[in-house]
Design a protein that fits this description.
This protein is an alpha/beta fold and 502 residues long. It is built from 16 helices and 18 strands.
Amino acid sequence: MSDYLDVHFRDRSNPKPTPLIVIDTKVLTNTILKSHGRPPWYGEDGQSISPAFVIGIAGGSSSGKTHVARQIVRALGSIPAVVIMSQDSFYKKHTPEEVALAFTSRFDFDHPDSIDMDLFAACLSDLKNLQQTNIPVYSFTEHQRLEETKYLYGATIIIAEGILALHDPEMRKLYDLKIFVQADSDLMLARRIARDTKERGRSVDGILEQYLRYVKPSYDNFVLPSSRHADIIVPGKNNAVAIELISTHIRRQLQQRSRHFRQKIAASLKRSLSRGPPRELSIDELGLTVLEQTPQLKGIYTVLRDRTSTRQDFIFFTDRLATLLVEKAMEMLPYREVNIETPVGVQTQGKVIDVESLCGVTILRSGGPLEQGLQRVIHDVPIGSLLVQSDSNTGEPLLFQVRMPECIRQRHRAVNTWVFLLDAQIGTGASGFMAIRVLLDHGVNPAHIIFVTFLVARNVWLENAKRHVAFLDEDGFDDAQQHKAWVVEPGMGQIGDRYYLN
């Protein structure tokens, strides 16, 4: 396991977000492990295999909850994506009067009513169902929830920790494993004094007053009683044996949920071949829109295939071909009629693109050559990226990074967003399948995904896709537009927003 995590986090002493950095694993709040790629989370039919594994960790203030969470992450080893969600992110928005009380340590942050449990459960449910979500950001210096949010998508394991993590019944329904961290009250108070004096600049008198007024009553009335819901109670220190048992259980659960995407496709194709060689599918059957093979296009092919072509010529004509592809893809967008007036005062009718949002998503690194063409055709188009690479041992595609434009991060906007998915080279199409799955997880309408590519292996990918992935010809479009889309079977399209921190 890597000793470092590539994460975003919030310094509680600084209300502004801290930029992306590499830090030691001691930073625990909203941590994402990205040192290992995420294997396919869907089967050969495109359907999701299983939800993320969710762990709830509760315990008293300074009992060692985040330490236990960190130890679990370390013990698990090579895990594709781990998110640690802190209850602290979900404090409710405060009124000016409540903020004034907070600055004088007279506001009860330990009572269940101070936490937006509905939002906490909703965000956790999204992540469990492999959707994206947007976590609120709370400032401890301002004692207020900020307007900004933190985007998450793609977790394999989610750890939700907080003193009241096991208190709410709706939250408990989401957990696959419930843990309560038990510690001596004197030890918790000593840890709290050391933390608050060092990290938050508070006085010992103020800490003791707040502890007796709010922290101790909350522990006795709400936190400790929630321990009866725990599957396992872990000591706050000297807990190596308990951590090993927990990590072994989690690894076993993940193993039971794992699938081999390529193996299943290959096995299915082998059964198909046993009934005789498959018939080559036509362009119409595949639902492809292919550039007209004009003399100009064939001239571009000639330069690209000529071994004597210079590097400069190869780049120049690749950009030309990319521009032609994007211009053809523009025909797939819906247009509406408008009335305009020319500079000489003549009224005339024209057409404009009728879309709410439009963006590009590049499959790194092969999709890079198409970006230039997209930017030439559509000025200031937002472009996101997906880093998908093949496992050297299994050949499975692995998702390493997701960076989506704002219009896709927000699910209510993603539904009405049109996406040009750019992939300059297709072999087996495993990266393309995964990229489409990610877009559907974010709530993008399947009919709004336009796959733009230099098609290299039609028989290998598209015909395989035809047999193993649902083909969708959306209703509501004119047949003359030939608007067809290759998609993994919908239904997971509701899986919306998660994963990697931006």
